[in-house]
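Deliverable D4.2, example record:
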Amino acid sequence: MIRSKAFVSALFTTAALLGAGVAPAAAQTSAAAVSCNDGAKTLTYRYQAAAKEYGTFTTSSRCRDINMRLRSSDPAVLLDACVVFVDHTSKCNNDDTYSTHGTEWATVATDVRDGTHFVLRVHAYDIDAQNVTFQISY
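Output generated by the structure prediction step:
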């Protein structure tokens, strides 16, 4: 009889969770990614010879990574970017290297702790990047 009570209890718990609208883990992960990028900050890069820094920003629990995408209708326009964790260094992450970014969301830094201070360092991939609107989420 104890086995039956445990089974019935598990059924009620499952039904209660489903009735409360608790989504499966995969759906929660997907929803978290959407909410991370939904809170993106929009910035504008104007062409210059040297890299330009944006920030200082502070990461939160909203995003696990620092992401970037360009808001351009021209797929030939690209920006190079890196993250500088200003409380620890003056160099870019990933061995002081830049990554190239286009119109799709892409990661500039991964698995960043909440409360981390950083600047986004950006420079033009080539001369096509004159006035480029882009977004970051963190």
